[in-house]
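Reference record:
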Amino acid sequence: MGKVTRRRYGAEFKAKVALEAIKGELTLAELSAKHGIHQTMIAAWKRQAIEGLASTFSGKAEAAVATGEAELTRLHAKIGQLVVERDFLAKASGRLSVERRRAMVDGSHPQLSIVRQCALLQISRSGRYYQPVGESEPTLALMRLIDEAFLDCPYYGSRQMMRHLHRLGHRVGRNRVVGLMRKMGLRAIYQKPNTSAPHPEHRVYPYLLRDLAIVRPNQVWCSDITYIPMRRGFLYLTAIMDWHSRRVLSWRLSNTMDLAFCTEALQEALALHGTPDIFNTDQRSQFTSLAFTQMLADANVRISMDGRGRWMDNVFIERLWRSLKYECVYLHAFETGLALHAGLRKWIGHYNTRRPHSSLGGQTPEEAYNEIGSTVSSLKLAA
């Protein structure tokens, strides 16, 4: 058996792939098939690129260049301490998933060999040579069936979902269903102990909407994330909605379930529509993160979070996902991220400006948000 050649990726190639991922025009499965790289590695490069851009503009790079001889002397004196910390971090990295640790291996590192990196990360070097493949057509078909069933029956857990798929003729095991539902971000609504927990280091805020009369726009905003199936892969969508008027204030697509597209949507909503009194979400790690909650705190917005497993606490945006998928996503089976973006923009524009709601007295969400419905009615009566 011949010697296996290690694939090394240069900085220019990584930057190119990361930029494509940031654009969000292709799913991770499509990028993986295009470049022959595992999806986890692409997601890691995207995250590193975003963090690198932030540090570029924060002045950290200039501070590092300006480090003087005194700083170097101090750093040399800490070599012994750093050796101890290195050993500690090597042990701590074992708590990360194998995929995340594999994505951390840098084949082009000038000082650490792949063998040494794998040893520090406590992973097998053979895993580096796995050839990635995109999601298969049968898998994507299963994910769509699960998504459709979950919209109708959000109380389905993995066991009930498995039985539902069996009735449709798909002989899949529970572990398979659990993995797909986790990938799609779906969780049954019933209460269950010690599950669907938020990030252990993030603060969870109390639910503030119980028995609260929501009677005006910008009194309460809400947000959520949903899975959007495509013909080849899938993307994630987040939206921010005004609770009273049901108007969609901002939205973003992403090929990874990261924090950036959530904070971008929040920034846009705050910039275009001011600030609400209360902002309500579920307990996802994206919404409990310090970056997200700090933006709300800086704007003097009170933070509210659903009870664990209680989809009814954020019911209106759940209804938005149902309408959006049945009336737009499932009807078109979009081929690319660009096509999906254009389709969502058209549907959300129609939903906001042309679709009347019975709960709003026949007004559209935009009319209810701008409180122009009563004025229009008065003018008609006067005429």
